[in-house]
Amino acid sequence: MSGRVALVTGAGRGIGAATVHALVAEGWSVLAVDRACDDPALPYPLSSRADLDRVVSESRLCAADSGSVHGYVADVRDTEALAEAVGEAERRWGGLDAAIACAGVIAGGVPLWQMPDRQQQAVLDINLGGVISLATAAIPAMLRRPEPRSGRFLAVASAAAARGMPMLAAYCAAKAGVAGLIRALGAELGSTGVTANAVSPGSTDTPILAESARLYDLETAQSFAPQQPIGRLLHPDEIAAALVFLAGSRSSAITGSVLPVDGGLTL
């Protein structure tokens, strides 16, 4: 995949960081995008600029000969900022071949009707709105590539898109929206050479899962492991591996799909 260019949101930690590492190791040039600061609407810390810088530095150490990476600060709720990020990738590397929406947050811990409005809006605007914003900004850039194209629009959904999870109703709604969006984009993109797909992770060892454990008054995130048939939490690298496959040439016949990478959680 030498010479390919990707933009990854939510790159400061978790699945986004793992995806940046994996792409650069495969020879991709990657614009690693993150808000890189906390959100006052959410009761737990988000990734910082130091986190994003660390991901960039670590990726450079393991980069393949043709791979490179650059950090970029933008909020996925800001379509204009994402359009500027896409423009940065095009100026820096000559185009865009993949856009991967990994940015996500969680909030809840109470029934939907008791959830503070600001938290509910943040969950919907980042987890679903952020994917829509990235699609709006990035797909035209991928369509600007000359034919035959092989663009990839990818998103991280969740097992919560298929399972009703108490006290996480807004999160479930946002992730179900991502799944529906991907199916529609697959149909809209048709024979353009650009595909749209998502992965749907189960309980993955990330800061979001740690916050989920706190919301459920569990001692640690490891408490979620027994609900998955494989009997353990997933690692962000396992989700990233699926995203890198979907970003590559061997996934050319796959579009409009939501791939479960969930340890059997949704069986």
Mind explaining what this structure looks like?
This protein has one domain (5-261): NAD(P)-binding Rossmann-like Domain (Rossmann fold, 3-Layer(aba) Sandwich), CATH 3.40.50.720. Helix content is 41%, strand content 14%. The chain has helices at residues 14-25, 49-61, 79-93, 117-143, 169-189, 207-215, 236-247; strands at residues 5-9, 29-34, 68-73, 98-101, 152-156, 195-201, 257-261. It has a seven-stranded parallel sheet with strand order 3-2-1-4-5-6-7, sandwiched between helices. Helix 1 (14-25) packs parallel to helix 2 and helix 3 (79-93) packs parallel to helix 4 (117-143). The longest helix has 27 residues, at 117-143. The radius of gyration is 17 Å and the shape is globular. It comes from Nocardia terrae. One of its GO terms (molecular function) is oxidoreductase activity, acting on the CH-OH group of donors, NAD or NADP as acceptor.
Write the layout of secondary structure elements.
Elements: E1 5-9, H1 14-25, E2 29-34, H2 49-61, E3 68-73, H3 79-93, E4 98-101, H4 117-143, E5 152-156, H5 169-189, E6 195-201, H6 207-215, H7 236-247, E7 257-261
Parallel strand pairs: 1-2, 1-4, 2-3, 4-5, 5-6, 6-7
Helix pairs in contact: 1-2, 1-7, 3-4, 4-5
EC number: 1.1.99.-
Keywords: Oxidoreductase
Enzyme class: oxidoreductase
